[in-house]
Amino acid sequence: MTRPARLRVDFIGCDGRGLCAAALPELITLDDWGFPIVSDRDVPSRLLGDARATVRACPKLALRLDARR
Amino acid sequence: MSDGLLLAGPAAGYEPAPSGLGRRQRAALIAEVDRAGLTGRGGAGFPTARKLAAVAAGHAPVVVANGTEGEPASAKDRVLMTRSPQLVLDGAVLAAEITGASEAVVVVHRDVREIIDEAVAERARVRLDRVRLEVRTAAEGFVAGQASAVVRWVQRGVPAPTATPPRLAQRGLRGAPTLVQNVETLAHLALIARYGAAWFRSAGTPAEPGTMLVTVLGAVRRPGVLEVGIGTPVGRLLDLAGGASAPPQALLLGGYFGAWVAADLALDRPFSSAGLADLGTRPGAGLVAVLPAGACGLAATARLVRYLAGESAGQCGPCRFGLPAIAGQVERIADGRGADPGLLRRWLGQVDGRGGCAHPDGVVRLVRSALRTFGPVEVGPVPVGPGPVGGSR
User: Fold this and answer.
1) What's the pLDDT score for residue B254?
2) CATH 3.50.50.60: does it fit domain A5-67?
3) Is B80 exposed, middle or buried (0-12, 13-18, 19+ CB in 10 A)?
C-alpha cells in the first residue's frame, strides 16, 4: 500500500511552461497567467503513476510528489 | 506593564555572553527561553526556543541577526539598533553560544550600519566575545527581510527568497544549519539571559508574554516607536503616540501584510495575536497605522498594493503577474472606474498561498481587509479552479 501523496509546485522554480496541466488535467489546471494550480487533495491511487510521470516530465524540476506524514 | 529595557541604551548595561557553554548549560538556557515564552518579533511569531533547539541540534551552525527591516513604514529595528546596539549584539552572541555557532552575521539596515560597526569594534577592543561577529549591510526592498532572502543575500548577493525545503535550520548559509532571528528577538534573548523568564513574563499576557516594539504612524501627534507589553489596548498605543491628530477612521494593524480594521472595532482590542485573531490579523512586526476620517482607505490601499506588487522578487509567476493585476483592479475601485468583483475575487484566490514566500499572501490579506472595511463588495476565499482542483501549493 503506497502512502498518500500530494502534488506540490516550487513556484520559484516554475516557469509556467504548462506541460503538467496538459499531462495531468485531472489534477492540474492553469491560473490566468499560465501557472499550475494543483489539487490540494491526496493523489488518487489510480493516478499515482501518471502523477509520477508528470513530475518527471517537468522541464524545470519544479513539480514534486510529497508523501504525506 | 513593566518598564521595558529594549530602548534603555547603555542604561540597560551590557555584558559578555557566557562562553564555552557545555551541553547542559545550553539546554538550560533554551529551557529558560522556552519558559519565558519568547516568540520571533520579526513578524512570524515563531517560538524562539524551538528554533534555538532545532539549530543547536545541527552540526557547526551559524547565526544570522536580521536587522533588514524591509517594511518601509516600520522603524522599530532601526530605533532599537540606534538606541541599544550592544543589547542586540549581546543577543546575537548569546544565540551563537547557545546553538554552538562560532560566527554571527549581523545584517543591518544601512541607516544604522556605522552604529553597529562601532559597537562591534568596541567589543573587539575589549575582547568581549569568542564568537566572530560579521556585519553586513542589508539589501533594500520589501522581501529582502524574509529569512531565506537574508541568507541568500549574505551568501550570493541576491536578496530574494529560496525554496523550502530545505529549511534554514537544516541547510542555510553556506549549507550550515542557520538560525535567522530578528534583532529585537535577540535583544529580548539577551535580557532573558540576564533577568530570567519570570521577569520577562511580568509584561504582556500569560499566553503572549513580554514586551514588543511597535511603530505607530499616520494620524497621531507623535508618530514613533514604543515599547509596550503585548496585549496593550490599541487605543492606548495611540495615546502613547500623543493621541490621534484627527478622528481615526480605520487602522492598519500588523503592517502592510496586516489588515485594515475600522477604528470602532480596533481601539479596545488588545494588541496581541489573541486580541486581533478574529479581525484577520496579528501584531506582526508591530505596525499600527492610523487612517484619519475623510481619507480614502481604498486609495491608500491601492497605493500600498501597487507598491507591494513592485516589491515582488519576481521569482514566482502568480506573484509576479497576479499582484500587478490585483493592483489594477483595486485602483479601478478606488478611482471610481469600477472593477470586476468576480475577476478580483478570482485573482485573489489564484495568488493566495502560491509563492515561495508569503509576499503574495500578505497582499491578499491586505486587499480583502480593505474591501471588508471600506469596500462596496465582500471578497472572500472562493475555489479558484474547476473540477477536483481546490486550493493549491
Assistant:
1) 92
2) no
3) buried
